[in-house]
């Protein structure tokens, strides 16, 4: 349930409440000192009201959720957690995981930020390198050599487990889901101790910035790590709101707060990262192979290396800028030669306000035998991943590889065009 009550007095912004002893049991003999929630300092306001930093739509919920998260963290002091991101994490996921790690540190909770895929988008690589963001790649092979019994729980940030290979492994190890924070539509039933899922919010970075504003972490511009994290959050917020063009009031308020701490030169350096030649080749392939019907541009780009996966959304970003095109879908078969893994991966970008990417992708591709959807989305963007299972591999035979691609290409076009133009039948044509 989402509450929309505005905060009319800044005093109601405070979360400095005494924990209920029945709700949170605190070891009085422990020398550990709990970090209090503090009120954020506000800049002067012309109208003398002191300024209100949280947008009206999410005030009550943001305060409530910040309070709940604090109580959850209090109950897990001195533990070790895994923060699991989607296989190909974006700036929103990376920055929020880092913010969560810094918040959790105050409660002596040690977090490791992990993802199973790779960073291939040039801005994501630059973000991690230039800010020294502490994210680690754990492949399924890496996971086999890890002792998961040393962790007491796991956390999902900017995803609900449907886009991570690691979820099943940690669940099989018996680790409980402690925290789930996301801004995508609900993907299924997940039992977590703390849940904050707000599909109407444009970026998970907005949610985490509200946690910071509420006092879960007092940002200090004299601390380099805080400045870099604020810069990462600003990048995540900017990325998921299409450079703030799709931002709502809450997102603008979050950006205004972060503007007091982030490093503009560092953010500019991240945004100026150059596209690789391989990315440009995929964009060229998408232009060559695209078909345009009813203002939809659909392009299959064939086989890609696992490390070049992020070229697909960049190609979709490019195709949607074409005249008389409001929606672009780009897809390809991504293969990892080391793990003999193959998966069909696609991205959707749209400027059409009445098209819901989440509904469109779910209707087009449906779900697997366990009830999990093959994809989903948010405002303006979406993606899908379809495992190839038994048909994976065998690409050393060029004729077989070509035949396999033609089958998948025709099937994906068939499913998309049933929605774009029901009268068209690409299999017959």
Automatic annotation (TrEMBL):
Region annotation Disordered: where it falls in the sequence: 1-49
Alphabetical list of SUPFAM superfamilies matching this protein: DHH phosphoesterases
Domain of life of the organism encoding this protein: Bacteria
Composition bias, Polar residues: 1-19
The protein's name: Phosphoesterase RecJ domain protein
């Amino acid at each position: 349930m989402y509450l929309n009550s505005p905060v009319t007095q800044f005093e109601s912004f405070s979360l400095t409440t005494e924990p209920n002893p029945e709700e949170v049991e605190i070891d009085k003999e422990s020398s550990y000192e709990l970090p209090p929630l503090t009120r954020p300092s506000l800049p002067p306001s012309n109208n003398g009201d002191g300024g209100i930093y949280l947008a009206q739509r999410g005030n009550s919920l943001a305060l409530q959720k910040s309070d709940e998260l604090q109580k959850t963290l209090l109950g897990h002091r001195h533990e070790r957690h895994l923060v699991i991101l989607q296989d190909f994490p974006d700036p929103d996921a990376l920055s929020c995981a880092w913010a969560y790690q810094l918040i959790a540190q105050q409660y002596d909770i040690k977090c490791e930020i992990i993802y199973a895929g790779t960073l291939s988008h040039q801005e994501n690589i630059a973000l991690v390198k230039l800010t020294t963001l502490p994210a680690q790649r754990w492949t399924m092979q890496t996971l086999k050599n890890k002792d998961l019994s040393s962790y007491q729980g796991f956390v999902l940030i900017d995803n609900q487990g449907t886009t991570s290979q690691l979820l099943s492994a940690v669940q099989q190890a018996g680790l409980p889901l402690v925290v789930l924070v996301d801004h995508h539509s609900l993907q299924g039933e997940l039992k977590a101790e703390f849940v904050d899922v707000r599909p109407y919010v444009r970026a998970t970075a907005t949610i985490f910035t509200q946690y910071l504003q509420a006092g879960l972490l007092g940002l200090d511009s004299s601390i380099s790590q805080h400045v870099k994290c604020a810069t990462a959050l600003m990048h995540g917020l900017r990325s998921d709101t299409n450079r703030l063009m799709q931002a709502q009031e809450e997102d603008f308020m979050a950006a205004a707060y972060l503007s007091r701490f982030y490093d503009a030169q560092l953010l500019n350096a991240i945004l100026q990262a150059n596209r690789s030649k391989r990315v440009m080749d995929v964009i060229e392939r998408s232009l060559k192979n695209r078909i345009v019907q009813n203002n939809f541009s659909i392009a299959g780009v064939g086989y890609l290396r696992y490390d070049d996966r992020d070229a697909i959304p960049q190609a979709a970003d490019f195709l949607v800028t074409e005249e008389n095109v409001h929606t672009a879908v780009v897809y390809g078969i991504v293969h990892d030669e080391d793990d003999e893994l193959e998966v069909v991966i696609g991205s959707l970008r749209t400027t059409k306000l009445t098209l819901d990417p989440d509904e469109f992708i779910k209707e087009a591709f449906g779900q697997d035998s366990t009830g999990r959807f093959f994809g989903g989305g948010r405002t303006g963007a979406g993606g899908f991943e379809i495992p190839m299972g038994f048909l994976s591999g065998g690409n050393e035979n060029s004729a077989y590889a070509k035949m396999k691609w033609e089958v998948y290409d025709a099937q994906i076009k068939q499913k998309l065009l049933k929605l774009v133009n029901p009268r068209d039948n690409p299999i017959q044509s």
